[in-house]
Write a structure and sequence with these properties.
Largest sheet: 11 strands, mixed
Order of helices and strands: HEEEEHHEEHEHEHHEHEEEHEHEE
Strand content: 15-25%
Shape: globular
Distance between the termini: 86 Å
CATH topology of one domain: Rossmann fold
Strand order of the largest sheet: 6-5-8-7-9-10-11-12-15-13-14
Amino acid sequence: MIRYSIYFLIVCIGISAALPADPVIRKLDPNLRFKYETDGSGKNVLVDTWMKLSDLAATARFNPIATNSYNLFTRQNPTISQNLLFNNIPNLLASNFDSSKRTVILIHTWRTQVISDFSITLVPALLAAADLNVILVDWTAGSNTINYPVLIDNCVESGRAVALFIDWLNQSTGSSPSQFHIIGHGFGGHQAGIAARYVQGEVGYVTALDPSFYGWLNHNYRLQPEDSAYTEVIHTNAGMSGYLGDLGHVDFYPNGGESMPGCSSHACDHARSYFYFAESVLSGGFTGRQCSSYLAAIFGICSLPGRLQMGGLTPKTGQSGIYTVDTNATPPYSRG
């Protein structure tokens, strides 16, 4: 019996010695481990597309319920935010949050500081267009990693945390999910859908601004039309930084959806989505022409009679389809 125990111990030691110290447990691409991706600040970053056991531990340590911050802007405080503390009623009551008004939630993308072109462009445009509560979500604790599987997992968990925050706002103030408009860029585009999906009740409006492509093609948590009563997508770097196919009730592919006039990089194309949206809430421009498919939009073969305005603050509930729109190379981008 002792002989067999010793033999078993030797076998176990041999197996342990043969296993890598930090094994790979998930691969986004079975063949290509490292690749360059453009982050939210426009930098080309070498990312790891395989998840190791140690990366899984890092994901487990990310706690967006504790680390996400929620920065409120209103017409009473348009430039300096008020930090809303989850589950802190006195803090909420002391803020300028007004439950009688619509609330816009903004979610940034990968490796982007909370104060970035995305927020600097959208916050003033939104407040100029309407008297709103604008809440900028800061999930940088989960978005700064260069491991893509970890980033995707963190994006999903942050979306769930945002949903809990919205539920708490509604329960605490009497506001309703239909008053909420969730807007996300890149990874934030998928997170906007995830957040809306997990809110108790139906969110009125989701806008995904060039939602990310790599890693999301067959992902169960990618953006879906049913995430809100009306889900709209604006594709400006489709197939590169942005998702290629249609994801919403209505999908717009400006200029074919990949290369934008006036841009010379994928980062510029990717960012055009929020510049177009900001202009749309102020001007109401950007009349789209209906296409039979997203491929027709990409190749510019759109001759269906349907017309629809891209973007804006009013959800086009009940509308569906794929549209293209031509833009100018410099502001104003809309041609009408």
